[in-house]
Amino acid sequence: xxxxxxxxxxAARRPLGVLAALPQELGDLLGAMRAESGVRTVTHxxxxxxxxxxxxxxxxxxxxxxxxxxxxxxxSALIHVxxxxxxxFAGVAGGVGKDVRIGDIVIADTLMQHDLDxxxxxxxxxxxxxxxxxFTADSTLSAQLNAACERFVAEEGSALAxxxxxxxxxxxxxxxxxxxxxxxxxxAVQALRDALPDALAVEMEGAAIAxxxxxxxxxxxxxxxxxxxxxAHAPASFATxxxxxxxxxxxxxxxxxxxxRA
Length: 262
Ligand code: SAH
Known about the structure:
This protein is α/β, with parallel strands linked by helices. The chain has helices at about 5-10, 30-35, 70-80, 140-165, 185-195, 205-215, 235-245, 245-260; strands at about 15-20, 40-45, 45-55, 55-65, 85-95, 105-115, 135, 170-180, 200-205, 220-230. The relative contact order is 0.21. One of its GO terms (molecular function) is methylthioadenosine nucleosidase activity.
């Protein structure tokens, strides 16, 4: 057995993969990385991967863009090209749970693809030949995200609520559902509630990331801020929230998440 010196071990430390769909969802993470370590950009499969450190944690940060295929391809590259030890996704989502309001935060305990249906060959929602419909987020990473979110809400929640005229944000944990649709009607969000009564939020990437991470044995965690309630107001609410508010949440949550790991 060979022994490694401390610098060798440091160099061998596998990075954390951090991704979002859209640039606003990263907050100032890339700025923080640039200021701390500088950023090396690697282009692969028409995406830029930003390599550096955040509060001492080696990271590869990237944008998946929108939808399950985009997310699956991106997280696959994070695993195979960059050898990430774990994956964290931060972004926005539509609220589905009756108690989930715009400005709240949802951390996934489990994720599923609400638009996957190979019935009657396989049960609705089940990934054919894998035999799974609900993927589980990593409990340790999710607990770290949860703690970061609770601190963020305690320290900045009332200021955010005043600034953006929202109600005080709350943190929820539970089921996030993903599909290749922007859900934007009362009928569509009600259909989701009827089919999956415990769904808290709907988005377009999380369950694809969770499936790929499951298949490769890589821990993952997903945090979503609620930008809209997936009804007829969703397009306008999403657009405003994304531009004006999403970055403040991602910065606030990710700064505290990395601080706790440092
Ligand atoms: N490029 C476009 C489209 C974004 S689609 C734009 O910038 O305007 C919406 C994104 O936000 C997806 O990444 C999805 O994960 C999330 N999202 C927010 N609200 C959603 C909703 N009601 N239904 C589905 N996805 C939602």
